[in-house]
Structures are given as C-alpha cells and as structure tokens.
Amino acid sequence: MASENIILYHYSYSPYARRVTWYLTLRGIPYAQCVQPPTMPRPDVARLGIGYRRIPILSIGRDVYLDTRLQFIKLENMDISLPRLGTSQPDQRAIERLLSTLMTDAGVFGWAASLLPSDLPLLKNPTFQKDRAEFFGTQPRPDPKHVALREVASVFNLLETTLLADGRDWILKTPGPGLADIEAVWPLHWLAGLPGALPKDRFGPQVYPKVYAWIQRFEEALQQARKKAGKPRTVSGEEAEKLILASEYHESEGPVDEGDFEVAKLGLRKGDEITVGPTDFGATRKDVGRLVSLAGDEVVYETKPEGEGKQEVRVHAPRHGFRIQKGREAGTKL
C-alpha cells in the first residue's frame, strides 16, 4: 500500500488527530500527512471544496472522511492483510462503542480542556483565542476547574476500579493495545502529559496506579510501533490535492434510503444540493455539496475542488452529531 493512498490532514498537538495517528501507527498502515495550522483558515482543506473546520480529516483515495469515529470505522473495514485493532465479538464491540461515547460525547474532552494550564503560550495567543471563540460559538462556557477535576477523577476511578482492576495490560485483554484502548486512553494520556494540568496530590501513579501503568504501557507500545513504521511522508496542500484527485474512489456509490426518517422528512433525492455540518463545536463552518448517498449512520456528498475542470471528491460524514439540510443554508461559511 503506497503512503499517498491515505492522507491525514492534522496538526501534531490535536488530541483528536492523535487518535487517528495512533491507530495508523499501531496497525502499521502507511500514510502521508498534510500538516495544518491550528487555527482557520486552512486553504489546503478548502482546495477540496470543504468548509468543515475540525481536525483531523482523512482521505482514502478520492473519498474524504470527517470525524474520528467514522474514520475508525473506515480504517477497520479496509481490506488489507494487517490485523485489525478492533474486536469481532459483539459484547466487546459494545465496550468499544461505550468507551467512545464516554470519552467523546459525555463531556470528558471538555472537562480535560478546562484543565489546560493557563500559562500555555498558545492560550495567550490572540489569534488562537479568536479562532476558538468561533469554534465553540454559543456552546456553554467551560466548567469551573473544580468541577472539571471532579469529573475527570470519576473517569480515572472508573477505569481503575473496573476494566483495569484485575491487572490486565489492555482493556479487552488483547496481546497489544487495541481500538478499545485508543478509545479510552486519549484524553487521559493528553492530561497526564501536560505538566500542571492535574494536581499531583490527587492524581498520579500513587492514586491511580493501574491507570497510569496502562498509560505508560500504551506510550511504550506507540514508541515501538513508530520505530517500526518510520515517519509518515509530509505533503503540501497542493500535492495532497493532486494525489486525491488522481485517485480512484475508495468506496462504491451507495443509495439514498427512501425509508430513512430524515430522507422522508426533508424530501431528499440523490443529486440534491445539501448543507452538512456538525451540531456542536465548529458548527459555523459547513459544507455544501450534492447528495450521493444517505443510509444508516452516514451521509455522503460531492464537493467541487477549487479551479476549472477538476473532479469532485466524495465527503463522508457521520449522522450522529451532524445536521443535514436540503439546499444551501443561508450564511454558510465555506
């Protein structure tokens, strides 16, 4: 598999992007990276006709995938010889999904972000502050620090006293770190690696020995995998666009399910112009495209890259946490 078949648009200290780079590294999938600025604008992404602002964005061939949860599903389903990181057992898959929901939807990331040390240089940068004000929009203000500490402590305690309580190395007792470990570890790994984020007398190996030992094992496994995989190739936005547009589609075209609640309510048909964007963070930046398929948990639409005569790309977004509107939404920022 050539590295240009998969391109990851990200920046290195994005906690969400780390989820995907960890997956690619631990599974041994080669990829290219297109490094992005931490703030808008991102002209490399706009080249693909995409207004969505959240990082990471993953392309496989001429298909582009938004949101790490959908990206994991697509990477797990890739028909390659490398062993998957996810489980095939239904009860264990439920644990993976529940851990994903806990860490991504239940507020853990927001609590973790509330605990970032105020003296971090980036947090003092006016450009970053303005950008994040747009990103969070009208979402509620972050919880007070004492509330965030309480909530984060409850997550540490949950893992310490349940899934890791019997001394296992990995969440699902796998030989190495699996998808369940990635789903659970990322916000805790992030906080544990930020000096000053967590008070030493209430967190640390002396308070949560099993959790911190698990985080350390995970980091060591990553280091070993990185040595084996080597560094990903870095491409410019122009190079990434050329590679994507010269590729075949990774997936065949799916249907628009006429029995779907949303399809029926909005009167959607294949080829309709639609507006798609997240409902929580980054909601002011949305995409406008032509509906390709809408069924199950995914919507697919075509966007038009900048410039005359260029082929479309297919953008895939999850249904959960995203809103679909028929037509072009007034005031949409691209």
Automatic annotation (TrEMBL):
It comes from Metarhizium brunneum. Gene3D superfamilies: 3.40.30.110. InterPro entries: DUF7962, Glutathione-S-Trfase_C_sf, Glutathione_S-Trfase_N, Thioredoxin-like_sf. It comes from the Eukaryota. This is GST N-terminal domain-containing protein. Residues 112-227 form the DUF7962 domain. Residues 303-315 have a biased composition (Basic and acidic residues). Residues 303-334 are annotated as: Disordered. Residues 8-69 form the GST N-terminal domain. SUPFAM superfamilies: GST C-terminal domain-like, Thioredoxin-like. Residues 316-325 have a biased composition (Basic residues).
